[in-house]
Amino acid sequence: MRLYLLARNPTDSVTEGFLPAAARLGLDVTVLTDHPDAHRAVYPDVETLECDVRDFRAVVTRISTHHRPDAVFSNSDHLQTQAALAADYFGLPGKDWRAALACKDKAEMRRRLAAAGADTVWSAELTGTGAVESVAQAAPYPCVIKPREGVASEDVVRVENPEQLRTRAEEIFARRPGAVLVVEEYLPGELYTLETLGDGKLRHVLGGFHTELSPPPYFIEERLVFVPAHPEPVVGQILAQLDALGVGFGACHTEFVVHEGRARIIEVNYRAIGDQVDLLLTRLLGFPLFEHILRTHLGEPLPADLGVRQGGAARLEYPCADRAGTLTSAPPATELSVDGVTLTYRPLRAVGERHELYRTNRDYVGVLRATGTDQPTVDRVSAQFLAAQRWEIQP
Q1: Which of 7, 21, 144, 251 is found 20 to 30 A from 306 (Cα to Cα)?
Q2: Is the peptide bond before 301 cis (omega within 30 degrees of 0)?
Q3: Domain at 122-185: CATH architecture
Q4: What is each CA distance from 382 to 3, 86, 281, 302, in whole angstroms?
């Protein structure tokens, strides 16, 4: 059976998750990407073809002139709509392209939720600096400005008044010519995630995470703590909003806040959670997450019982660069077991690399994954490990 996997840059989810899972399922894999050299350098034995994967028409043509597909899949934020359209063209299982588009387009997501009566958030789009003044005068403060189709908290910033909104909008437009920005009311509350897996008929809730962010005005995810089960009323509210968006096939990673018992979506990433959290979930929950995701795209129904292991505790930490410069010293990749806690540390930036300060997830220098059975012990062991490490950045 032939799996076409659409990708842009290589990711840990594909390299360590989906490609090994495809091999275990006996699938022939063809990677379609607009960065072929980068993928061939990471996994030279996997067939990789160059393709403008941002254009669904180019994807259809590339597949049509190659081998017959049995599944078309992507775990990229940028390519869910294209993968869904291509799968539909070939009569294969996949996501509804309308739902994929509504999740990716943050302004359209707000419109669809409001039209369905699921949630209403004040928001407006900026297509250029000429529209900034009217939006600055109408917006409720504080509010958040962000790219309509952005990822990884890039150029997402909280603003407190019209002057800040004007300044931030001009800065972002200068960095992103032609971009469309969304300005929306700031939603207060603690930030959480909900991880779901469905086959279009059956949907499993895998739990979620409590996310700790950097101080305002930025929104860098610095720490995630596993939540085995959110309160039922909270889960019910989020699932109702996902239903309004048409989300229910494959993996979905939803970010939301809870304030005074009300759960409101921040954004929907219609793919598996990334930044190595999906790798942690497979170990923590003890089930083949990546295989199940691929099986749904092959048309196989999910089992009523996934066999998920109960009683686990987990934490992820992302040490971040606090300045621009060259990383001159950092800990190596490490695997440890301490007091019943399994620690996995992976560098995300090589010693000798120079970077600017991005105020996004691109500031991560490493990731620590910790799993165990007791949350206080997991927290203590994680903190002790990180306190013993050193990351040095020179201007």
Answers
A1: 7
A2: no
A3: 2-Layer Sandwich (3.30)
A4: 38, 43, 17, 34
Domains 122-185 and 190-394 fall in the same CATH topology: no
Length of the chain: 395
Q: Residue 122: left (phi > 0), alpha (psi -120 to 50), or beta? A: beta
Domain map (residue ranges) of the chain:
2-92, 122-185, 190-394
103 in Cβ contact with 78 (< 8 Å): no
Distance CA 125, CA 128 (A): 9
The token duo for 41 is 């350098």
Q: What are phi and psi of 237, to 5 degrees?
A: -65, -45
Ordered per-residue pLDDT tens for the chain, 395 residues = 999 999 999 999 999 999 999 999 999 999 999 999 999 999 999 999 999 999 999 999 999 999 999 999 999 999 999 999 999 999 999 999 999 999 999 999 999 999 999 999 999 999 987 789 999 999 999 999 999 998 878 899 999 999 999 999 999 999 999 899 999 999 999 999 999 999 999 999 999 999 999 999 999 999 999 999 999 999 999 999 999 999 999 999 999 999 999 999 999 999 999 999 999 999 999 999 999 999 999 999 999 999 999 999 999 999 999 999 999 999 999 999 999 999 999 999 999 999 999 999 999 999 999 999 999 999 999 999 999 999 999 99
Reported in sequence order, the residue ranges of the chain that DSSP labels E, i.e. its strands, are 2-7, 28-33, 47-50, 71-74, 123-126, 143-147, 157-159, 181-185, 190-199, 203-213, 221-227, 249-259, 262-269, 313-317, 325-329, 334-338, 341-347, 354-355, 366-372, 392-394
Could you tell me the fold of the domain covering 2-92? Rossmann fold (3.40.50)
Domain 190-394 fold is: D-amino Acid Aminotransferase; Chain A, domain 1 (3.30.470)
